[in-house]
Amino acid sequence: LAQVSRPSPRRGCPASAMVASDLPAPFGGPLAQSEDPDLNPPAKVETPGLSVTTLDVPSVQSRTGWASFLQLLSFADGMVVLRLRDSAEYDPEGYLGNSEFLSEVFEIVESRPMFIVCVCTGAVRASMMAFPALATIVLASKDSTFGFPCEMADQVHPIVQVALRRRLSEVVQRRLTLVGDTLDACEAQRVGLVDFVGDQATVEKEIARLVYRNCSPGTRLAGPAQRRDDLETRAKVAMLAE
Q1: How far apart are CA 76 and CA 102, in angstroms?
Q2: Which terminus of the chain has fewer CB atoms gathered within 10 Å of its CB, N or C?
Q3: C-alpha dihedral (151, 153, 155, 158), degrees to nearest 10
Q4: Which helix (H) or strand (E) holds 123?
Q5: How far is CA 157 from CA 70, 94, 96, 106, 221, in A?
Q6: What's this model's pTM, rounded to 2 decimal places?
Q7: Could you list the mean pLDDT of each consecutive 10-residue stretch along the chain, which spans 242 residues?
Q8: CA-closest candidate to residue 179, choices 154, 202, 148, 219
């Protein structure tokens, strides 16, 4: 059998008078005590900042491109920056107007708390009007224009009119769809479709400011109720402007 050696008392000193250093150390010793995790969490824990996802939105692209955009949007979390590129190219398939793509985008935006920034440059026409209507903040350069041309009436998806109700009054919607008026950036800001107008450099600075404000540590996204209140306030301002 193995023999366990015990420390012997010092000479001239009774066993009851042994000092603490002569006693065997506890299991693991001081090394184990130094490796034990701290069970007391810090008093304040900072929430990490939100992520930023930037997506290009061309008016004409392949079905594979639209499917990739929809997949990235469905996985996006936090702040999403949509950069519209509405070219004057003819879309033979009319994908935005004939498919359920915009309905799926509308469902994703309504079901998830995302802060969407839509950046508009140049002409925004027909079904592309759904993106600024669904965005939380719309930034437009001074050369941006918005409208529904009469020759493109058959290329407008029905969900676009539903999305525009988030920002425009019924009078303005009829003016755009029935009359076919084209709004410049300043007029679009007056009726509530656009939130910020400036030159290209100013728009980029505003994007940087929004990223810093919404993606700093501890930032929380606004809930559906708060976003609904913001939309109602924007609608009242547009009605007073008319």
Answers
A1: 17
A2: N
A3: 170
A4: strand 123-125
A5: 17, 10, 7, 12, 29
A6: 0.69
A7: 53 52 51 54 62 87 89 87 78 80 90 88 88 92 87 78 88 84 90 91 91 73 50 50 50
A8: 148
